[in-house]
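Work package 3, deliverable 3.1, input record:
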Amino acid sequence: MTAYDYPLTIGKLLVTPIAQKSAAPIVHRGRRFSYSEFVSRLHRLANVLAGAGIGAGDRVGVLDWDSHRYLEGYFAVPMMGAVLMMANPRLAPEQLAYTLNHAGVKALLVHPDFIPLFQAVRDHVPSIKTVIAMSEDHRAPEGLCCLGAYEALLEQAAPHFDFPELDERSTATTFYTTGTTGLPKGVYFSHRQLVLHTLTLLSNSALASRNGRVDRETVYMPLTPMFHVHAWGFPFVATLGGLKQVYPGRYIPAEILRLIAEEGVTFSHCVPTILQMLLSAPESARYDLSRWQVVIGGSALPRGLYEAARARGIEIYTGYGLSETCPVLTVAQLKPGIEGEAEAAARISAGLPVGLAEIRTVDEAMRDTPPGVPGEIVARTPSLTPAYAGETEASQALWRGGWLHTGDVGYFDEEGYLHITDRIKDVIKSGGEWISSLAIESLVSAQPGVAEVAVVGVPDPRWGERPLVLIVPKPGETVDDSQIREAIGLAINEGRLPRYAMPEHVRIVEELPKTSVGKLDKKTIRARYGVG
Amino acid sequence: MTAYDYPLTIGKLLVTPIAQKSAAPIVHRGRRFSYSEFVSRLHRLANVLAGAGIGAGDRVGVLDWDSHRYLEGYFAVPMMGAVLMMANPRLAPEQLAYTLNHAGVKALLVHPDFIPLFQAVRDHVPSIKTVIAMSEDHRAPEGLCCLGAYEALLEQAAPHFDFPELDERSTATTFYTTGTTGLPKGVYFSHRQLVLHTLTLLSNSALASRNGRVDRETVYMPLTPMFHVHAWGFPFVATLGGLKQVYPGRYIPAEILRLIAEEGVTFSHCVPTILQMLLSAPESARYDLSRWQVVIGGSALPRGLYEAARARGIEIYTGYGLSETCPVLTVAQLKPGIEGEAEAAARISAGLPVGLAEIRTVDEAMRDTPPGVPGEIVARTPSLTPAYAGETEASQALWRGGWLHTGDVGYFDEEGYLHITDRIKDVIKSGGEWISSLAIESLVSAQPGVAEVAVVGVPDPRWGERPLVLIVPKPGETVDDSQIREAIGLAINEGRLPRYAMPEHVRIVEELPKTSVGKLDKKTIRARYGVG
């Protein structure tokens, strides 16, 4: 048999921009590379890494802002048969060191901005044999005892590397996800999974008849960091498509706005906070954002931010996914005929499952919940992490029943849009039904006098759990029990909350426990108030 | 390990139209099915076939016009683990019988129009155990001794079939390709190959910024028969996308034009002959075709037909592929900035390689030819037939050097568009260079007095081969040698033909040998004139 068994490997994504002779550049800090130059730099990078002893299966970590160099790492490292480890510079040093050690990182590519962080972890990660400075120029900065500066090393490297034919199931990338508790957990993705993520994401974009288009005239700029879940996978999509790509470095609002204008950026993705930052930057009003399409993910898109973005002419809508899912599971493309308030609701929802994605909302026995009824969101796609690296128990829980458990609760509406209502660990399980803590919190937070609110489930001998509402009043104001019950009662009568959502317990408190990043710490809240 | 290893099987293509709750119908002869109804009919069809003893690996043949029933066969048969055999009703009975026997067809689904053909082959194909009538109604026609009529059988069948989880590499479809010589040869494609063909085709459509879009508001109607190379793969694309699909039955120009208007068809694909037939139909001028996009393939798009289609406002462009390639290798999407005469040339060219397709033009030693220089077109994609069924020698020739040999000669231009210049067996190999017989024929055919022309290579002791030009003059007219040489000389001086294309031999003949379908029979021409 002499037929070629075409493997779905990351290097194959480069065939198309070269074959279609894309004239679009890859841009970073004023430097512009053609796709041919980009490919030739991959060869040089592979020679640099191979010269430093990196081979098949070795872990190569990157600590960088969004740059064309990072994109080169996305390709050259897996194409060598090595594994790209996207290190997270937002972690505390001990957490970062844990992840680098757990992955067994052998070479680390470090941007000079992260030298202090690197110095804090260096002695705790004995596996690191090689360090390369991700400098903007040819100089390696002081304080980084390293092989050299990336650009200088590339310049000296041989221009051809003989990339091996790889098994599509070999691991290409890994990174760590941090929950509210416990140590970071490693997820990992094969070449095949990343190629299929790319194809399903791009082919899903084809179906867009209103929002959600990505075509060869799109100008792409990530605003989700490249160390975070493959920048949601879009750099691979943009490369396969031969799109113009703009890499913004560290996220500085004035610089991002300037790039959008000067480079003609038409497509980005980010968390709500980044968009909020851009809209409220002092220079923001000077810029025309009406040609800009933005996918929002990472957390729910607040209605106010949605309205503000629409008022600026931004083509805004959501996507949904997790570190464990590569990540994209859903995208809120508008179907024909969805207009007015339904359009806003659809754009803010998590969206429609992308091509090939099997997504269910299930009860605890893994039975499908009907449309409109929340259940845990579970998924099967070609691109889900097979496990948490080295964590048997957590992996089995992740894949209980052969479906990946997202830990999120949501429901599908009649049009197929997924709406997320809660985290499963925060949902209140009452008499076999699920009550969304977020839905009650959202309602109560809009009542006069309410500064903060938390709703948690507390044990109940008859129903299993019942909602407890905890309220911090605004300074100098008072909130009373009956006012809150009245508001909830009204929502129940109007069908916005289920009947069993009426809380028996409403308590006024002085403050609510928070996590280090300022989110409600529901675990502590439950521990503190759960008895009562 | 409890993770789900998502297989690329044809049944997975149905996940998305259902999940995205497509409201679009599948239409045939006034009947309209929702995607849910379509899926439930697949279950019933599988039960009918299983009841008739069809199981994993069995071949199920279909002899039908384009219908929703054929589409059901595209899905239900492979989803059972059986293999769909697309029988070609255009074959002579003995050829059809050969293909049915070679495939070992166990059940055959026959449209009543093909009863005479079926009766002619029936006794020669002992493997057929079950026959189902693809009638438009519940009645099985006379003359077809069969299990029953498709619609009646579906109605009686149980509504749920337990489709097995399949290995993505199991064979899903097979059909036969007929060359000008020899017996038909069987090609075959796995589930994985068809899913990847669907994803690469749809994701390639995403990149279209000008022509070539297929989105969820597209209304699709095939005009390449479903028995021919999966109707170029578009029924799978349309189903994954949840598009409205219109199946036209037998191709009758008036009926096709009516369907385009009444069903709002916006996307089709066909060979030039079909488009020519539609444009020249008596009722054609009454119809607005300006919302219609048509991909032309199968043979070169003549400039005249292109102009006629553009004059009607049709969004026309080409695609290229073979039975052996699933089929799509290239699509002539316009890149930004390609305008005017370059636009026409691009739309008429074979087009740009689709996503992941590796396509080269090579000389006999498999070295790449430079841009502009013709060579044999060879390919690697995820969706190529691994062999000709049971034909070791032909399979090795097909895959010589690990690349699929198309048998076509062409070159890439500077923008990446592929231009096909000849069939390799017709190209004239002169002094190490290739001369396109088609290029000379095209030029000579435009000369006054020329009714028909054929150019073939004849043996030459010094150059290997040299072109021989054979001309049939128009009735009552004469053509002379020097006039033809002069025209060719002009083309050479203008760089439209290479210098070594000037023929030593021009002969005036009374007629030219043709094949049964009216094409020039160059094999016979070479045999008859090759000595001289």
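Chain B is about 30% helix and 25% strand.
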